[in-house]
Amino acid sequence: MYFKHVYEDGLAQASYVVGCQATGSAIVIDPRRDIQVYLEIADSEGFSIDYITETHIHADFLSGTRELAAATGAKVLLSGEGGADWQYDFDHESLTDGDSFTVGNLRFDVIHTPGHTPEHICFVLTDLPSSEEPVMLFTGDFLFVGDVGRPDLLEEAAGVKGAREVGAHQMYESVHKLDYLPDFVQVWPGHGAGSACGKALGAVPSTTLGYERRVNWAYRTTDETEFVAELLDGQPEPPTYFGTMKIWNREGPKVLQSLPRPNRLDPSSLKRMVDRGAQVVDARDKFAYAGGHLPGSYNIPDSSDFSTWAGWLLDFERDVVLIAPDHRVDDLVARLVRIGCDRVVGYLPDIERLSDTGIELEIVRQRTVADVHDDIASGAVSVLDVRSASEYGDGHIEDALNIHAGRLPDHLAEIPRDREVVVHCETGFRSSIASSVLLAHGVRNVSNMTGGYAAWQDAGYETVAEGEPVG
Amino acid sequence: MYFKHVYEDGLAQASYVVGCQATGSAIVIDPRRDIQVYLEIADSEGFSIDYITETHIHADFLSGTRELAAATGAKVLLSGEGGADWQYDFDHESLTDGDSFTVGNLRFDVIHTPGHTPEHICFVLTDLPSSEEPVMLFTGDFLFVGDVGRPDLLEEAAGVKGAREVGAHQMYESVHKLDYLPDFVQVWPGHGAGSACGKALGAVPSTTLGYERRVNWAYRTTDETEFVAELLDGQPEPPTYFGTMKIWNREGPKVLQSLPRPNRLDPSSLKRMVDRGAQVVDARDKFAYAGGHLPGSYNIPDSSDFSTWAGWLLDFERDVVLIAPDHRVDDLVARLVRIGCDRVVGYLPDIERLSDTGIELEIVRQRTVADVHDDIASGAVSVLDVRSASEYGDGHIEDALNIHAGRLPDHLAEIPRDREVVVHCETGFRSSIASSVLLAHGVRNVSNMTGGYAAWQDAGYETVAEGEPVG
Amino acid sequence: MYFKHVYEDGLAQASYVVGCQATGSAIVIDPRRDIQVYLEIADSEGFSIDYITETHIHADFLSGTRELAAATGAKVLLSGEGGADWQYDFDHESLTDGDSFTVGNLRFDVIHTPGHTPEHICFVLTDLPSSEEPVMLFTGDFLFVGDVGRPDLLEEAAGVKGAREVGAHQMYESVHKLDYLPDFVQVWPGHGAGSACGKALGAVPSTTLGYERRVNWAYRTTDETEFVAELLDGQPEPPTYFGTMKIWNREGPKVLQSLPRPNRLDPSSLKRMVDRGAQVVDARDKFAYAGGHLPGSYNIPDSSDFSTWAGWLLDFERDVVLIAPDHRVDDLVARLVRIGCDRVVGYLPDIERLSDTGIELEIVRQRTVADVHDDIASGAVSVLDVRSASEYGDGHIEDALNIHAGRLPDHLAEIPRDREVVVHCETGFRSSIASSVLLAHGVRNVSNMTGGYAAWQDAGYETVAEGEPVG
Amino acid sequence: MYFKHVYEDGLAQASYVVGCQATGSAIVIDPRRDIQVYLEIADSEGFSIDYITETHIHADFLSGTRELAAATGAKVLLSGEGGADWQYDFDHESLTDGDSFTVGNLRFDVIHTPGHTPEHICFVLTDLPSSEEPVMLFTGDFLFVGDVGRPDLLEEAAGVKGAREVGAHQMYESVHKLDYLPDFVQVWPGHGAGSACGKALGAVPSTTLGYERRVNWAYRTTDETEFVAELLDGQPEPPTYFGTMKIWNREGPKVLQSLPRPNRLDPSSLKRMVDRGAQVVDARDKFAYAGGHLPGSYNIPDSSDFSTWAGWLLDFERDVVLIAPDHRVDDLVARLVRIGCDRVVGYLPDIERLSDTGIELEIVRQRTVADVHDDIASGAVSVLDVRSASEYGDGHIEDALNIHAGRLPDHLAEIPRDREVVVHCETGFRSSIASSVLLAHGVRNVSNMTGGYAAWQDAGYETVAEGEPVG
Prior knowledge:
Chain A is 29% helix and 22% strand. By secondary structure, the first copy, chain A, is an alpha/beta fold. In chain A, strands 1-2-3-4-5-6 form a 6-stranded mixed β-sheet, with helices on one face. In chain A, helix 4 (163-177) crosses helix 7.
């Protein structure tokens, strides 16, 4: 048996290639949209990808199932569970609870595990003929290392009223549906730490059923009501693009032939594109953005969170222009394509010559925590905390307004205009993004509190823990 | 004044960026089709490309004038000389003999210099206001370092009967049309050594009028008849794609948005593509091809001659699959695009796993010169010399059949089938290409004479100098 | 807890980075010698590498413990078990059975598990304070996925007489020493499929104790005598460099400041280096090598087995010159450095111009299985099977001489000189290496049986299963 | 004849490879220290580098003559002119005025042309047997496109009193020493635009003698006194490292085996290195540096001027640490090695995690021209103009102090400490470097005038043209 864990750190997303060496046949579970990685594994290991499956309709990335099927001719096996609203709307064979299928000698048993989503399924893998014992469980967004999937996405992101509680109760049942499996089964989930599909995912790629039964809160909480309350509490804000992904993944995402290859622009071409409506994503780091940037551009730094912030902030129906060095463009384009943001039409390697076109560059004013502390006292500034509601809940600067950085475009009205607004997050990454959003939407009286809440605490200034986020 | 010689070694083709630093305006002369190089120069030097021109309708590469105009909005200035048949068939402003135009402070004077083609023009550049003296002459395919352009392409490649002599006489006149210019003017031609647009181009990028007047045979031959005879003698075989280029460049080549990005294939996908009609170009070197290759593939080694051999052998209307390592694919695709071969649909990095698909690999049998010498004597083999007619004329193995490697597909009927055919060129590069063509067309009794004619001579075997090529 | 499985496919070798996020402290287990990978993980994840440990004195690669300690100042923790002969001979702190140490909040318990080597230890990891349950076991070369470590290396590679049986009995005890641990503990071994440190390692990176107890032959064989017999049977031939590694790793390998950066050579420089005694490694694939190569060069194709074949064939005390394209040189150098082969002094990107220096290139003659079958019958050829003894034992061509490809330099006397020797392996990879070794040692009457034993079987020719290998 | 102009844009330095195709022999003129480029040309074109020569003892880069001789075994031909003080102090053959040597069929005639330096020679190339006419002249730092070499470097950089005038008169004679050569000879100089070895070099790679005779001021100024005055007027400030280069190039620079390969550091290793005395070069652009940087680091942006600014500011005897992304490190190291700055011991790809080590990052305060204009009026700020003396002379802000950015370390005492110092250059590149120098030397009351003198002029504020630079 061949097994490969393919991890995409931008979305903390795991897909799997499992192959039977005796027959040369392989399956891919939960493929991402830039499928080259699977083709290369298959080629170098000598497999033919004959099957593709998914654990569920994903909300955080665009599935590569259709690209991969087009490239390989593989059979597509997808969940038929969850009722009429959750049926995939493109060519496939249905899998339902209790089904089995084989990939060469390997047997996959299907278990329906709703909770995260109604149609969610898991796969128990048995490495026949070596042994009749189950070796691995592919749990998708149902069971993670140290956590279970969140049941509230449908309501939060797709607007299905009341779905939260229904999902939470289903999750309780699904957790115990696995009780028949032995402790030693390996658990390989669909996400790692950092994914917005759960709240406390561990930074370890895999676990075992036995370990989770002893350590995972979901197994240790035996009272269903308590379980439901705990599960629904403190889930992170789902990025705005999640709703779109759900729909596209169910209907069948557009099939890409190959990754787009944007042209290098000169400053005047960039200006023309902006004039025609392109969004500018400045992927330089917060220091460079603060030191000078194109007015109107969003700062989404080239980091593992690039896809997620792009998902929060970009309009996938409009053209996108990147500011990023040549050697990073291909990877950033791939990160955008993974969430269905396909319209990258050009890039500028740096901003050195932007001012030649008559554009006046903008900076992000920096304030030290000491400055801010003094000015709060004098009423000269308002503080805007762009962290998540749960971070805010754990402690914040008194009277700070809390709006999640990704939600700012919908909450501009709440930003005070009559005095300077000092933006901060935990350490400065998100406040740079947030400052760029405010500046781009014409909020000029903005400054960034260097070092963020961490620096504020290090300086020993007072904090409070009550209060409610605005957005 | 800013000046940049942009040289593409595959086609030995020169284009030029000339800019006026005082105004930031620049012109590109004879742009190639992958225009990124010009955009990057303009960006890094701070120029705006406001003008594009061509010296003539090119036969050896697809012009990038339309791509560049689309990307920059530059004004397109093209020859209006040569009569109705030689008018560009897309948007432009016409230039005729005696015209002048300026790029910032720089003045370009237009001289009509027919001979290579009827519409051919040159540009005299004066770097105003520094001096009223002419500084450079852009001569396109009219005047080269040590040679002048060939006047026979229209007849050879485009089938215009009688054009050879007409062109040769025009060339004589054009050569002397420059007599009014001073010796010290720099001459920057459209091609360097290795181009098929002339026969004796020097491996030096530029020259001066004064030096050419003293050294170039075209200036030293003062009798017109002698000039015409000399000019028409011994020109290299023009690749078969030249005729197509002429037509496309006049009509206006298809504008590419960006270079194609072929997908990496696995062996079975490659097989599917071949079954659907794709041509396979094996870009590995002659050693690797000889050691094992896919039956039916052409060996066009990754070298500076790649474009030219692709032009000889490929059908631009059919899909192309490359066998080349990942890091070379982009460049090879660019080399194909430069001649209008846009349909590269995939690539295979190596042939390691090809035999897994059931394909039986083929080798190229090698024969030493000693073997061949013996077997010629015994009548066991025929010798096929795939060098050019002029090389053959200078000396060859007795009774060797001479067919230029690029013309083999049209001369398969002349290849003997009743005995082994030993292929050779000068050193082995072209005979590998030729062997691949023969094998791909079902001529099985082929072997390669290792080391080629050079090795034959080194061994001291007899040669002859008379005889006529077949193809 | 942070966990990273760092896998080096050339030696199928796993090392691990485990970090405590609460304290920022991390440990590296079994580091390889090119340590950049650990520094980058630590940097990007925000850890400080404070500890380094090893499971045992490695035989198959040179440890990077000293490089990593020099670069980070980390504390070095090494086994103090195994008696006086097996004590590390450089600065470290000793670990013995029953010891515990902590990395931030994480606890590592040391278990002495001799068998593969006398000093071998394992680590049980507990992720405190999350849980008191053990989460992972780092088993080094003691327990693999589906197998246990081989106990015969000391005798085979280091010449310690009688060590095989002693080790096998110790292994039996060590296997059961883990009985106290629960089924659900994850097992992360020191090697994956393809390593010469065991015979049947699975192509899955990890397993669980429970699964191994049910499936691994070592747990299912409860009779000690039977266990010992099974364990010692059919182990692969250990490469010749294993003995050296043992000694160097115990004494403390030379610390590299950075990877060597060999110069690109031209053909005449290469010739000079060869004249001064350099070994030439031709890393092109078998097709290219067969099609033409430098006489005297070894063909060690650029593949995941590169390090192992270099370990079999190269003299680490002599200079090495590579034939490999520019973009592959850095990785190949790293692969050599991993086994202590540090003297790569230059490389040639291809062999195109080698013959310009007067060198006459050599080819590898190819024979089809049909040819060989006929010529065996007529007595014209001898067959040399360069596969492993166990493959030979499973079936071979009648009367074929069996010498493992890596052992050929020590068995040249056994090669017949009075007739053609046809070399084969399973599919052609190893027979290309073997042919290169024979040619380099002056055995000229060599040809390669294309397609190998697999093709012989496909053709339906007879095979036999008895007989003994020669070397 | 083969000819290749090898241009290094960082030092605007030209070297040349000239080869005789008939014999395969080539010469390199004025090689730079990273010699790989010459070896690759020789290899790909099939030449053997048999000769190396220099036009003079260079001041602006470290010669690669010794590296290249070591790698190729080429004969080294160097000037024997200029008297005892200017004799090369390592193995070579001497060339004096009137000497000739051949490279294959090519003849090089030596002309002694002192002025820039006493030992300076030029080479007249004749392409025998094609023609007896001279084809090219290699003029080194004697004759440039549009200018002649500066004669004041010895005095400015090497402290030879009175050398300026002597050199200027010699230059006048040398200019006319070429009168015997025809107009049509091509002139290929040692530098292009941007070099500090002259003051008005054109951005065109080559010229002709005839054109220079008509356009170059040095030919048009026929009065010797006027010539000398003009030549000595307005030469740019020579970087501080020029003196060292002269000495090292005469004595024979240290021969490098290969380019250093610095290790990637983590923040804490960088801190350790700084504590041990390493200089930190932050090669990010001015925006990133302004937005946040390591206190004490110099900002030398990754640009074509990188070598020159490194030459101004770095101590070649101390370790250097770079802040630059991975893919730029090799090139930046090469740029440093070209001027003999060999001790790059590590690099940090970005500063994201620097603050984790407890280091507090610093920003560069930005002031708009409007702010500065107001504050000058109120006496709140001093203006520091870090442009060259000649730029300052052409116009500056009233009362601005002028110290060339590269000379700041020697003029710190002149910087006012009692009020804010606003730094500016023309557009902001040099003022970022200058601000970094001031901050690194403890001058804290520094801000940068965004947009520089260009923005000041665009805003229509008053300027003056009299006044003297301080440093």
